[in-house]
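To fix ideas at the outset, we first show an illustrative case, written as a sequence plus integers encoding its fold:
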Amino acid sequence: MPTRTATYATAVAVLLAGLCTSACTATKPAALAAVPPPPVSLELYRTIAHLDSAMFAAFNHHDAAQLQTFFAEDLEFYHDKGGLTSFEQTMQSFRSLFAQNKTTGLNRQLVPGTLEVYPISGYGAVETHQHRFCHVENGRDDCGTFKNMMVWRLRDGQWKVTRVVSYGH
């Protein structure tokens, strides 16, 4: 007849073996990060993806007047290097950036597979993604990939960005 200690040790071993089996066969977090989850709403995803594309077409054409139509006047733009800017400050920054880069080919591309869109009940949506900015400097392409989050508000049938968090610079 097994002793109480032996029975306890067997029970612990079985429990640990079960935990190890489930933990050891679980998907690694890095593998999960590589594939974004499917959209909660395909229609919302398509809407925000279209708006993102149109916004950055204006950016890539250095069209500040068109670009500003995507942002709400109560915009808060948080940048890990530049700090917090308002709508007016952000638009002035875009105009300055475009003036300084008239011939550098400054452009932004969405990194494929990184766009995620989630609804915000009663408000709009949040978009996260990675994007790549490139321009020519000293005769060579200078590119960087950065992270971004935008909060979109739907009001009176119009989508506008109210918050931007740009980081990883």
